[in-house]
């Protein structure tokens, strides 16, 4: 059987570099070596690219607190020895021609449309959402505008731009307290905090500006948090709903996401069928409204006060460790991690008309 040649891109210049390496390692470990030839493509924090053997070596050196043995079908080509850039992979008699790029990075430069645009210019087909959908989904304010237009309920917000004056009194008057402070473009809750007092806001705003030029200040909605993964393209399907219960913080923070015991995830969520159906329908709505492909994961809050479902954000390249939310939802739907990856790759191959 002819193997599918996958270029697995990971790392990158975002605050989620380490998470990306961990996701990529688990993807490699769970891909069937009889079906796939995987070429690891590491991007360092400085933006350097390491391909093949060098990419795999980078993964081993930088994998955070995890066992790094093994790997699937490492290509020992001249590319790895030369340390050539991605553009070299697709052309030339001595170069490896990849069937599909599997981006396994999170946050800026990989999940925000920049990588997708570059891949399209190079003529390289790839997994997950396209340039526009990725860029829109990465921008929390733009995503909320699309969600509102699609009929989803969203929290009140104020945008602050770096080096421009803002009035805390007016912000608090509009949003109330507590206030959620988050960078407009960042993932994994990086730079996000909840401020219960006015005195906490300036520090939180300064911290969020470390991750971007725009800050989203959002009305805090107390309630139960849920996430819904959606798979497909033309006919997307929602996977089982997961409830997220943070244990180490007041919300699903970076620590709650990735620290052992940081949160409890209940899948399928113990909720009424009516709420489950609404969550899944809303997740498909925002998936389609943004034009997502293959897989995305949408987050919601079920308000304790008014019993409404509020859309929060959507991730176009969700985490892919075995403990991540999308694989957990797939498992609840009856798929092993290996089958889940097979299905995602099959969706992308079909969409790109690759046989």
Task: Spell the H/E element sequence.
Answer: EHEEHHEHHHEHEEHEEEEHEHEEHH
| Class by alpha and beta content | alpha+beta
Strand content: 15-25%
Under the CATH scheme, the architecture of the largest domain is 2-Layer Sandwich
* Model regions low in confidence, pLDDT < 50 over at least 5 residues: 66-85, 87-94
Q: Helicity, in percent?
A: 25-40%
Tally of contiguous helical segments: 12
C-alpha end-to-end distance = 12 Å
What do we call the CATH homologous superfamily of the largest domain? ATP-grasp fold, B domain
Reading off the top of the CATH hierarchy, the class of the largest domain is best stated as Alpha Beta
CATH topology heading of the largest domain: D-amino Acid Aminotransferase, Chain A, domain 1
> Mean pLDDT, nearest integer?
87
What characterizes the major β-sheet? Answer: 6 strands, antiparallel
SS elements, strand count: 14
Total number of distinct structural domains: 3
| Radius of gyration based on Cα positions | 20 Å
Shape: globular
